[in-house]
């Protein structure tokens, strides 16, 4: 007997724009963030993130989701499919914008909000072998190589023990670098982000609720129609493959080379990725090697 294929789940970026904004689904987002940050996360509210656009090309410098947790910290989550050379600067701009946007003119610096930036990336980003990176700010002595610490008064002022807890933190999740079995609860979430599949045996916090909520079968008619339009955009991009092939062949014959064809295929694949399709599927539709797409 053949093993049934897993139920199709909506993509995480679509869920952030539509489903995860509902208080009924806070448990899902709390589960993902708790596994990632290594602490119990409780979400108080979803804040306006200025990113309700359905097209990824309309995002500009906006984040996909901004939430406030029970400690008063702001967590911003961004999903990026298109290659962006200056993405590190975009991360910095995003956190700076959130910090200044939540600060009133009359408030002291000590009240600046703590921001945690979570970035889910599906493109080659920097050099490194890991698929999750965590960045914080520390101050190291030039001569003694000791770590600068907060004194007692500063700890009371900031309600923090360590200096790095007063500054923004960054998480980089490179899902295209995840090529392993899900051996930890956090891995189970990363597995879902990459494969859009949640296995029955997964036990990560909130993930089984995500399996139910993100199933196409559970979507109400309104949401199902909206997601269908999203999928229609992907199919539209796929329908451009043949025309791009034709243009590539013409250019290739005129110039005596096949560069036009390959470039046409690459252009189509990149458009599919920009619309939310994963790299493997986009490369297969366009007929190119996935490594060519990723580089």
SSE layout:
Blueprint: H1 12-17, H2 26-37, E1 43-47, E2 65-69, E3 74-80, H3 87-101, E4 115-121, E5 132-135, H4 152-158, E6 169-174, H5 185-195, H6 207-213, H7 221-255, H8 259-274, H9 279-286, H10 290-294
Parallel strand pairs: 3-4, 4-6
Antiparallel strand pairs: 1-2, 2-3, 5-6
Helix pairs in contact: 7-8, 8-9
Description:
The chain has 295 residues and is an alpha/beta fold. The chain has 2 domains: 12-218, no CATH class; 221-294, no CATH class. The protein has 10 helices and 6 strands. The chain has helices at 12-17, 26-37, 87-101, 152-158, 185-195, 207-213, 221-255, 259-274, 279-286, 290-294, and strands at 43-47, 65-69, 74-80, 115-121, 132-135, 169-174. The chain has a 6-stranded mixed beta sheet with strand order 1-2-3-4-6-5, sandwiched between helices. Strand 2 (65-69) and strand 3 form a beta hairpin. Helix 7 (221-255) runs antiparallel to helix 8 (259-274) and helix 8 runs antiparallel to helix 9 (279-286). The longest helix has 35 residues, at 221-255. The chain is globular, with a radius of gyration of 22 Å. The protein starts with 11 loop residues before the first helix and ends with a helix. The model is unreliable at 1-7 and 51-61 (pLDDT under 50).
